Amino acid sequence: MRRKSLWSRLLDVEGATIKKVRFDHDEGRLVAEAKPHSRERGLCGECRQRCPGYDSGEGKRWWRALDLGIIPAYVEADAPRVLCPEHGVIVAAVPWARHGARFTRSFEDQSAWMATHASRTSVSGLMRVTWRTVSSIITRVAAETAAAVDRFSGLRRIGIDEISYRKGHRYLTVVVDHDQGRLLWAKAGHDSATLDQFFELLGPKRCARIEMVSADAAGWIRKAVENHCPNAQLCLDPFHVVSWATDALDEVRREIWNEARSGGNTDEAKELKGARFALWKNPRNLTRTQRKTLASIAETNGPLYRAYLLKEHLRLVFKLKGKRGKRLLNEWLQWARRCRIPAFVGLAKKIHREHRTGIDNVLDTGLSNALVESMNCKIRVLTRQAFGFRTPEALVAMAMLALGGLCPDLPGRS
């Protein structure tokens, strides 16, 4: 193998010739002078269309390459400018690096891969760059990879939710593809205007092909779905429906506890205060002590135990699903309306008037937001890992690399 070809392979500089290699003893680094092949010269850095030359730019530039052993390596080349009809005067593209980057493509791919698999300390230490530089790298890598693939092809079932990524009510809106099991889109914000951006990106034709959308009962999600997806069934997440019943149950418990405490019945008040988790938990997961507490409530406190049974029967609706689940839901609504417990009477009215269609869709299709909640948990891990990123866009780029199928392979692997 020729020496110049060997250096090209070592530095992963494709589409160029290595003219000369020198070692800078003062800085302890290797510098390779490169010249793009004729077919790679005179291209716009943005659209890579051939354009007339404009000037020689500001002289030579350096791009950081992957280390050779323990020695930092750099690629040096001219950086002329071209006149693009679309982008104006712009620095010409080079085959070994992305536009606007001061690192080679292989350096950025390895940094992006490591950022999704290792801690920020490990990435910064191994690659010898700051964490803020890593955030810029992964944003570029994610943008280029996303532009090269059609993430919205064949989209039929999606899940939508929001997740807090920072203190001060800072949220991301998250969209997940149920069929592919991957993160589809994310954006800072949690309102209908934010979600409208996703559907506008999707386009009217693809919006019309969406058949099912799983979400919680947020009005801004329902509004955006109704405006953009005329053929979609909105499936209300069962976890959120059961949580309404749990909240109603806890409201009943607090009312009875307050009555017992104000009436001087300290023993009953103490028992009710410690019964919270016994009433909340799945019956199969109760401890022996919690089972005794629940049995005591059944004997001594009829209204509270009746509220507990209402909560458990609503949970059973989503276990049965289909026609049996709908039939049980009808019975549950009748029971809740005449139970004489204000919290559950109000909940029954809320479900019947506002959310019955969404619940029926869940019982028919079995689609829930479980996958979205799983993605949210992984994004929370990435949020801690990405601590120090200055913008939510960098966090979104990292999430798309790790969870959206956009992460590049390590250089030299496939």
What is this structure, in a nutshell?
The chain has helices spanning 3-11, 105-115, 120-127, 131-148, 192-202, 204-209, 219-228, 238-262, 266-273, 276-280, 288-300, 302-320, 322-337, 342-365, 370-385, 392-403, and strands at 16-24, 29-36, 53-55, 60-68, 71-78, 81-84, 88-91, 157-166, 170-177, 182-188, 212-215, 233-236.
Structure description:
With 414 residues, the chain is of the alpha/beta class. Among the domains are: 1-102, no CATH class; 238-365. The protein is 51% helix and 19% strand. The protein contains 16 helices and twelve strands. The chain has a five-stranded mixed β-sheet, sandwiched between helices. α5 runs parallel beside α7 (219-228) and α8 (238-262) packs antiparallel against α12 (302-320). The mean pLDDT is 90.
Provide tags for this entry.
single chain, 414 residues, alpha/beta, five-stranded mixed β-sheet, four-stranded mixed β-sheet, 16 helices, 51% helix, 19% strand, elongated
Number of strands: 12
Number of helices: 16
How much helix, percentage-wise, in residues? 40-55%
Mean pLDDT rating: 90
Structural class: alpha/beta
**Which regions contain 5 or more consecutive residues with pLDDT less than 50?**
none
Oligomer: single chain
Order of helices and strands: HEEEEEEEHHHEEEHHEHEHHHHHHHHH
Q: First CA to last CA: what distance? A: 24 Å
Q: In this structure, how is the largest beta sheet organized?
A: 5 strands, mixed
From the alpha carbons, calculate the radius of gyration and give it in angstroms.
30 Å
Strand order of the largest sheet: 10-9-8-11-12
Please indicate the percent range of residues in DSSP E strands (runs of 2 or more).
Answer: 15-25%
In one word, what is the shape? elongated
